[in-house]
Amino acid sequence: MYLAVKHFNFLLQGRDFTIMTDHKPLCYSFNMSYDRHSPREARQLDYISQFTTDIQFIKGHTNVVADALSRKDINMTVLNQDIKLETLAKLQADDAELKVCREKSSLNLKSVPIPFSDASIICDTSTGNNRPFVPQACRLKLFQHLHGLSHPGIRATTKLMTERSVWPKISSDIKRWTRGCLQCQRSKIQKHTISPIGKFPIPDRRFQHIHLELVGPLPSSNSFTHILTAIDRFTRWAIACPIKDTSAETVASVFLDRWISHYGVPTTITTDRGPQFQSILFQEFTRLLGVKHIRTTVYHPAANGMVERFHRQLKSSLMAQTDSTNWSDALPLVLLGIRATVKEDIGCTPAELVYGTTLTLPGQLVNCEPTTQEDATHFASCLLQVMQNIRAIPPREYNNPVHLDKHLETCKFVFVRVDAVKKPLTPPYEGPYKVIKRTCKYFIINKNGNNETISIDRIKPAFYEPPQATDDNTANKQSLPSFAKKQEEEEKLSTTPSCLTRSGRLIKKPKRYVHFMD
């Protein structure tokens, strides 16, 4: 009461008004001695008395105005889906399926009177319960009302509805509608899509195909906070260059200085979709070098798995150092150990494939290489001949489980798994989005008007059950879902003739005016 008067004081000043409350003891507050009030209550009553002392009692069930502010909003969409028994009785009278069921069905259909009404409805009593026969026009509404309570699965929804209603082929209808519930598809995870592991083309020579990636941010060490890493698919030779920032200029400069100047220009570079690698500078950099740039799909590090696996080994080696905070000083010796370690999949060390000999490590007591008195020319020719005969070994294959939904081959819309950090109660999937192109490893979808490439491992097919026709003339047209309408509007906008300014800028008309451009 005190807070209400204080909040509306600019409206109450100079006015005669009455305070209505359903807390009866407050009505006698001004008639009681101030000694019976606490100092806080006395101050508040003193403030209220500056405006009015007229406090009257009102019963709680009639205090609807104030009560409405403390009650949750009623979901009117659910209440509107309730089916009145009188309406159901009228629809049963004209239902053709009910007449057929009375003649040929094994159901025990009887007329049951409606309480407090002269009408009656047809119910099945074969199970001991009165199960009303639901006409065609009310089935989807009844399903949406019962299934929308907690969105159970197919079996639970079937049991929930068959105990309370009946109609021909009720189980198949419920299965189809439950599978097509968009809220369930966004919020539930049955089984993630797991596609077979893809294979890169085997490189023909060394330093032909490399993987590029960034590590960090790491604890600052000599002002370095990130590491630029690169690894060759043929030799498994890797570099790790500490950098102070991750700008596209820094990445391109370090890559040119630490890789290209030592090992030449590669044919193919695989990176993720970081802003450094998608920048105009890096794209122009790869174009000038004549390098094919492959970008992985978002939230799918397995597509760049060779360098990601190298990161695991690199980080564990740095963490094992005595002073892991000074990682930039320990990095050169860690790389030396990694390059001199035998790789199980290729059966030799990366250094042997690059230099044709083993590396001498710190603390090595005996030189493992035999001493020979051959000139440099003969050694170079022999080494060149051996290196030319080396063939790349493909990575090891693993028998990982594979799960591909058969509907991925034909679905028009898909849901995309959200792999980013989510807030509580956030649906694990978003969408649906329209499919533009599909391959064995990725889909191209239309997301918010833009075409995006998404890994098939983050996708599941979207099912949609169109509403059934009713007696209304407008209901005979099967309307598209809201997401399909949005996609059509975006496609319509994208197909409008594009205009360019004199500077070459593309004029994009605002989407909110798409309806006024017809």
From TrEMBL:
Top-level taxon: Eukaryota
Domain Integrase catalytic: from-to ranges: 197-370
Transmembrane domains' residue ranges: none
GO BP annotation list: DNA integration
GO molecular function: nucleic acid binding
Pfam families linked to this entry: Integrase_H2C2, rve
InterPro entries from the UniProt entry: DNA/RNA_pol_sf, Integrase_cat-core, Integrase_H2C2, RNaseH-like_sf, RNaseH_sf
SUPFAM superfamilies: DNA/RNA polymerases (SSF56672), Ribonuclease H-like (SSF53098)
Classification via PROSITE patterns: INTEGRASE
Family annotation (PANTHER family): RETROVIRUS-RELATED POL POLYPROTEIN FROM TRANSPOSON 412-LIKE PROTEIN, RETROVIRUS-RELATED POL POLYPROTEIN FROM TRANSPOSON 412-LIKE PROTEIN-RELATED
Protein name (database record): Integrase catalytic domain-containing protein
Species in which this protein is naturally found: Schistosoma rodhaini
